[in-house]
Amino acid sequence: MAEERPHKAFPDGEFTAAELKDLGSCNALSNQEAKIVLKRFTDSAASTSKTWVAPPLAQKAMEYLEKVEPKTDTSHSRTVEQLRETVQRAQIDEFEMALLANLTPETADEALSIIPSLQDRFAENKEQLQDVLNEIVTLKQLQ
Description:
The chain is mainly alpha-helical and 143 residues long. Helices cover 60% and strands 0% of the residues.
């Protein structure tokens, strides 16, 4: 049997290729959602064991999320839920939602240029997309 090697995306060997295959069924998350999930995971694990230390990848991820989402309050997730509800009402796919929330384009034209899959639904209705973008900005400011 072949030796299980680290996946090339994780040169430190934190995940093997077999472990990463399990991620294929995962959902796309905005940075805000990822920060909340990771914080809850680390808090839960730390509360069950006094000696538990977050894995290096979790530590690196949280450092990154603290830089890009310093305002996100991880104690509650209502504004993040509202953001997801907003984009679902507009029939925006999950991965598109994550891109819009993370990249925060200012205009519908900018969103259409960086996320080509939105073209089919919003090229003729940029006002609806602009309304969604405005609501995303408002919700991010509430955090």
